[in-house]
Amino acid sequence: MGLRRVGVAVTAGAIALARETVDRDDALKALHDLCDEIDPEWIVVGLPVSLDGSETDSAAEARRFGLDVARGTGRTVVFWDERFTSVMAARELGAAGTTGSRRKAATDQVAAAIVLQAYLDGTRT
Q1: Please, what sign has the CA dihedral across residues 44, 106, 11, 26?
Q2: Whole-number Å distance between alpha carbons of 117 and 50
Q3: pLDDT over threshold 70, residue 62
Q4: DSSP, res 33
Q5: How far apart are CA 37 and CA 47, in angstroms?
Q6: I want to staple 111 with a disulfide (CB 3.0 to 4.6 A). Which of 13, 59, 85, 97 is the partner?
Q7: Cα–Cα distance measured from residue 121 to residue 44, given in angstroms and rounded to the nearest whole number
């Protein structure tokens, strides 16, 4: 969840897939519509924490956003550490040869897929 855009990813079994990027102002409606479409059990919201793991003002905003998502969709929302995901996404897109506006547009959704994959890997039993 960024200040201007929200990356969205979904699961295909045990694999996270980048889905779309939506404007922050439209994110709650877009997530509600997506829930109607795919009926997820839960939603993962990336939690921007500092390097030492402490929560920042951005983390508080992410928690507020997550509560709004939970209320608006009726789904369980879980929070997961999103440190370095945008950097990782930009590197992957650069390695794939994605440049310019396409790279910028895809970074948020690829970062969302990285967060979701980390959650899936971290909670797998």
Answers
A1: positive
A2: 20
A3: yes
A4: H
A5: 25
A6: 85
A7: 13
